[in-house]
Amino acid sequence: MALGHFMVEEFSDVLPQSTVLELASGTGYLGLSLSVRGASKVVMSDKECMIPLLHANVLLNSPSLDLNARTIEAVRLDWNNQEEAISRMEEETFDFIVISDVFYEVRLHELSVLQSPTSMAGRDRRAADRYSSNALLP
After folding, report:
1. Residues 39/19, Cβ–Cβ less than 8 Å
2. What mean pLDDT value characterizes the chain?
3. First-to-last CA distance in the chain?
């Protein structure tokens, strides 16, 4: 919840035109929150076993989502297959790439996509420049 509040406060000026990729979405709380707050497109991603839950939560929250004005989708993105995950992420750029409340695994810090978040940043690089996830990596 804290990351969602932070993003809405810090990026309220650009969030309505922004595209967001949420990694390891779980229940989709963060992605749904950003969609409700106006992100133009949110792609929530997780392992295959989580996709039905993400779809269900989109449906349950659809009264709060203006699906005529914005897009929200759930896609499989499994970091156990790094090449496939990176290939999928290279298909489009995102203004924000977010991840929160995930299990801590040291090996994931070595993923090239997490080492350079600005490489997939979209048209507005202010967020990537201000708050690079590299600062969070050991």
Report:
1. yes
2. 76
3. 24
The model's confidence at residue 64, banded by pLDDT at 50, 70 and 90, is: confident
Alpha-carbon gap, residue 108 to 93, rounded angstroms: 21
Contact 20, 41 (CB under 8 A): yes
Q: What is the dihedral angle through the alpha carbons of 119, 123, 129, 132, rounded to the nearest 10 degrees?
A: -50
For the stretch 89-132, pLDDT in tens is 777 888 888 888 766 566 655 655 555 444 455 555 555 454 44
7-46 burial string, b = 16+ CB within 10 Å, else e?
Answer: bbeebeeebeebbbbbbbbbebbbbbbbbbeebebbbbbb
CA 30 to chain centre: 8
What's the whole-model pTM score?
A: 0.72
Q: Residue 94 CB: number of other CB atoms within 10 A?
A: 20
**What is the DSSP-derived secondary structure letter of residue 123?**
S
Report CA-CA distances (Å) from 1 to 14, 60, 87, 101, 122: 19, 18, 29, 10, 24
